[in-house]
Specification:
51% of the residues lie in helices and 5% in strands. The protein is mainly alpha-helical and 474 residues long. Helix 1 packs antiparallel against helix 2, helix 9 packs across helix 11 and helix 11 packs across helix 14.
């Protein structure tokens, strides 16, 4: 399955043992190293910017003045700008207290409590206040952006472009030509908008596998890991390439581009951050003698995920999941319908436009609803959806095919009502940190629950011709 991200960043919650009764005593003679320090006091900064300095009615965001709401927004941005340094500091403290638990005093207990409560709410509040400022007063000053990111010096994504392709030794030139063509095609469609965070789009490390040659994937694992070790040692240490993070199999594989004796399929993982260098785009291969289209539209699909993720990589992993609709509310299960629905629908639409043949879109969308999308004679996707939970409650484990395929139909349905530009704008709005439910409501004018109910009625009560009529032919 595609569209996944890498292992979540470590949370800021302490992992120490807080049961002081079980803490081993340290002899007086034992030397304890100094506790990690930072050159700022985040609690003092928080209180200064978000308690003492604010207008008395700043938090009444629906009615306060423009000046006060702007001050609230800017102060939130200032406090949030310490997130990267703070995360590193808390990780250092975690490591320290694991080794020296007797040093965990009430002062640090209070600090962890503050980080996991008051400070943890800052990104969401910042997104909400930023959207409210835009809603009430428009972009009367600089556009709201995530703090502490590089300010682009160019509006041309090509000035940031950094794509490296690793090829399986047995892959054909035709595969590589298709791969590169549709990477560039998708970049031209999605990355040109001046609002895109161009500094978050690259580097992209692309690994083109040969699905019919397992040994070539093992060789490519070695080549790729050597490259990481040479060019991005921090990412190497955090990845499966690091010998401490994998269990090498007897055949030499480490499970990076291999899985249970088979070659891995297509996926996106990772994202540029202080822990990782790059997006990893793993590209599976297809039998081009009869299925060259899959090589093309799967490339578009995975590149669409990079566009989606680029808007939210400045937020912590858990918040990313809530912004992108993978997790809604307190449910910890990932849902494919939103991110995968977008990538599935637009990959077929964009490919159809490129080849000027919309029978591709029609055939793929028809099969994604009226076939079982399987090989074991299950009911059709449509039947499984209508007899199952709401689309936003379908998980990868419960029925990934419903999530992907009905998700694509849900995106087609919204697109037919609101247009492609509005669908694109949803992801640009996500840059502020606004959560999925609020962003959906603001973008489409109704909450996602109401819209899913209307969509389910549309699928239930429409003929095949009526369903297919919402798909574009240009």
């Amino acid at each position: 399955m595609c569209g996944g991200t890498s292992t979540p960043e470590e949370s800021l919650q302490p992992t120490i043992n807080e049961n002081q009764n079980t803490t081993p005593e340290v002899s007086k003679e034992e030397s304890i190293p100094p506790i990690p320090l930072v050159n700022f006091d985040i609690i003092d900064i928080y209180n200064s910017k978000l308690v003492n300095e604010l207008c008395s009615d700043a938090q009444d965001i629906d009615s306060t003045s423009e000046e006060c709401l702007r001050q609230y927004r800017d102060n939130l941005e200032f406090v949030f700008s310490y997130a990267n340094e703070l995360e590193q500091y808390m990780n250092d403290l975690n490591s320290y207290f694991q080794n020296y638990p007797e040093a965990f005093t009430e002062e640090y207990r209070n600090l962890f409590a503050f980080i996991n409560n008051e400070y943890a709410n800052v990104p969401q509040i910042y997104g909400t206040v930023g959207m409210k400022y835009q809603e009430r007063f428009g972009n009367t000053d600089q556009p709201i952006s995530t703090p502490r990111t590089t300010i682009p010096s160019s509006e041309n994504y090509l000035d940031y472009r950094d794509v490296k392709v690793f090829e399986a030794s047995t892959i054909s030139d035709q595969h590589i030509d298709i791969l590169k063509k549709y990477i560039e095609y998708t970049e031209q469609l999605l990355f040109k908008d001046k609002r895109v965070k161009r500094e978050n789009l690259y580097p992209i490390l692309v690994v083109q596998l040969d699905s019919e040659n397992y040994q070539s994937a093992i060789t490519l694992e070695e080549e790729y890991c050597q490259y990481l070790n040479d060019e991005y040692p921090t990412t190497f240490n955090n990845s499966r390439c690091n010998p401490q993070n994998h269990d090498r199999k007897a055949d030499g594989s480490i499970g990076l581009f291999t899985d249970g004796g088979r070659v891995s399929g297509s996926s996106i993982s990772g994202a540029p951050s202080n822990r990782e260098c790059c997006y990893l785009f793993i590209s599976g291969s297809f039998d081009l003698s009869w299925d060259s289209s899959s090589q093309a539209y799967v490339t578009i699909h995975e590149m669409y995920h990079i566009f989606q993720i680029s808007n939210v990589v400045d937020f912590d992993y858990e918040l990313q999941q809530k912004i992108t609709g993978k997790r809604i509310g307190d449910d910890k299960r990932d849902k494919p319908f939103w991110m995968e629905g977008y990538a599935t629908y637009f990959s077929h639409l964009y490919y159809s436009r490129d080849i000027n043949d919309f029978s591709h879109l029609q055939n793929e969308m028809y099969g994604g609803l009226f076939s079982c999308y399987c090989g074991d004679n299950q009911p059709t996707i449509k039947e499984r959806y209508l007899n199952g939970p709401e689309l936003y409650n379908v998980t990868w484990e419960s029925d990934w095919a419903v999530g992907y395929q009905v998700g694509a139909w849900f995106i087609a349905y919204l697109t037919s009502i609101h247009g492609e530009q509005t669908m694109y704008d949803f992801w640009i709005s996500s840059q502020t940190g606004i959560l999925f439910p609020e962003n959906f409501q603001n973008t489409f004018g109704k909450d996602y629950i109401t819209y899913e109910t209307e969509f389910r009625n549309f699928i239930t009560n429409s003929s095949e011709d009526e369903l297919m009529s919402i798909l574009p032919n240009s």
